[in-house]
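Predict structure. Input: Peroxide stress protein YaaA, 251 residues.
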Amino acid sequence: MQMLILLPPSETKRAGGSGAPLDVSALALPGLAPQRAATLDALIALSADDELAARVLKLGPTQRDQVAVNRELRTAPTMPAVDRYTGVLFDALDAASLDPTSRRWLGRHVLVHSAPLGPVGALDAIPAYRLGAGARLPGLPALTTVWADAVSTAIAGAEPSFVLDLRSEAYVALGPVAGTVPSVYVRVVSGGADGAVRALNHFNKHAKGALVRRLASDRPRIGSARGFLRWAASAGLEARAGARGEIELFA
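Output follows.
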C-alpha cells in the first residue's frame, strides 16, 4: 500500500514521441480497459468527420489539426504521460529535469487523469490527443457516466494507503475517490492582508506542480492527511486542514 497522487491533465500537449504505439494493456489500473477501448473507439470514429469533430470538441479554426491527431490514437508514437502534458502545472513539475530516482517515484505514486484513458501512470506511454472532460462523444453516454464508477472502483482496488487529490473538479467528477479510501482534496489559496483566504486560479496550477516536484524530490512516506501536513511543515510549505476532507495549500 502506498500514497497515490491524482493530477489533472492539461489541454496542451507535446507532439510526437519516440515510444511504440499505445498499449492499453500496459497502462495503470488495467481494470479500466473496457472504458478505455470504448472511449478511444468513439473518439477515433468521431474524428473521421472533421466538421463534426470540430464542433463536438469545440475546436477553433487554428485547432483543426487536432482532429487528425485523434484519428491516429492507436498508431501514433507515445511518450510518458508526465512528459506529454505541458502548461502551468506540468511546467512547474518539470519532470524531465528530475533525476531517475525521482522520476521512478512519480511512476509509482502519480496518476494523471486523462479524458480518453482515465487515470494513467505518470510514466505510462500515451499518444497526443484532444478531448476534454466536458465533451460528449457520439455513441457514448456522458463521460461522467462512462468513467465515474469504474474509476472510483479501480482506485479503491489499488488499495492506496492515502490519496492526495490535486485534480480540478471536472476531473474529480470523472472518478470521485471512494469514501472507503483515505483521501484529501487540495485547494490552493492565498491569505490576504485582511485575513481572508481566497482561492487561486493561475497560481493554483503552478503550486500543485511545484508541490509534486517537491514530493518527488523528498520522497516522503505519507499515509494520512495529518502526515501530509507534518511533511509540508518540515518542507517549509504552508498548509492547513480546511473544510471536511480538504487541505488548504498556501501559495
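DSSP finds ten helices and ten strands in the chain.
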